[in-house]
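Q&A log
Question type: sequence-to-structure
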Amino acid sequence: MEVLLLPQLADEALQRIQSIDRRIKIIDARGWFDVELRATWPQWTVERYIGARNLPRQSVEERNQALASAEVVLTGWPPLKDLRARAPRFAMGARASRRRQQFSRYRSLGLGYFGDPRVG
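Response status: OK
Response body:
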């Protein structure tokens, strides 16, 4: 299962996620989407939640490819506004319910995941 990781997390938290199940393949996309978040959210939101971090930028094609391959998207705030349209493998319905149960452990890390009612 491919899990796309968007929020800024410590490497220790990333290792904890990977240790949950050996079938999980983490796509570490921390900071990849900052340019899109800056372009689609108000300045005060960007300043408060993203700040002035200087992380590597990926091309639009690389970001789209990561979203297209992900079955689970761990997101923070602010979320990508067009996430549902760009993540076609994301599970809906009963499959999503099982995934929510499986990934409920992420809540203990302070994360939301795409499909989490708190995220949208």
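Response note: The chain is about 40% helix and 10% strand.
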